[in-house]
Amino acid sequence: MCRGVRFEFEGQRFEYRFTQYKARLPLLLQSGHCSLISWGRRKNETGNFPFGASVRLASIQAGRWDAFQPKPVKIAVPEFMETDVMGHEHWFQVMPGQYVQGMLAQQGNQLRVYTVQLDCNAEDTFFENWPRIVNSPF
User: Fold this and answer.
1) What is the pLDDT of residue 33?
2) Distance between CA atoms of 57 and 117, rounded to whole angstroms?
3) pLDDT tens digits, residue range 45-74?
4) CA atoms of 73 and 9, how far apart (whole Å)
5) Cystine design at 18: which of 53, 97, 119, 127 (Cβ 3.0–4.6 Å)?
6) Which of 30, 106, 102, 34 lies closest to 68 in space, CA to CA?
7) % of the chain at pLDDT higher than 70
């Protein structure tokens, strides 16, 4: 799963790891502006959103998230961090014009964003999961 991000928002530089309390992600809006939304749900947080930072693309397609009115969103981060199978952190750049795909979940008036993950073949890569990268903002 995408374990960390770096980005700028309103002139400030942020670096979040999912495990941090109140970690948020910048979602690109159709207006071209960004909005910060809470990232997933940690085990120590209350609420009814599913635990975790990410969601597998196949689970969205299978309808497992339908109760949360899932919407695809673009996460505007220039860098993300993944941990390899040996537990080492690696930072990766997102190319200009590309975005980490997110899924916006809603329950009542509460929103959470989860990164969308692709499964990786352990024989082909050092990573078990990888965030889905998408082109073009809209």
Assistant:
1) 85
2) 6
3) 988 999 999 999 999 999 999 999 999 999
4) 17
5) 53
6) 106
7) 93
Domain tally, the chain: 1
Distance CA(89)–CA(67), nearest Å, equals 34
Question: b/e for 102-133, b at 16 or more Cβ within 10 A?
Answer: bbbbeeeeebbbbbbbeeeeeeeeeeebbbbe
- The dihedral built from the CA positions of residue 128, 117, 96 and 12, taken in this order, carries a sign that is negative
Give the pair of three-digit tokens for residue 29: 């809006």
Share of the chain above pLDDT 90, in %: 73
At 32, list the tokens. Answer: 């071209």
Taking the mean position of all CA atoms in its chain, how far away is CA 64? 17
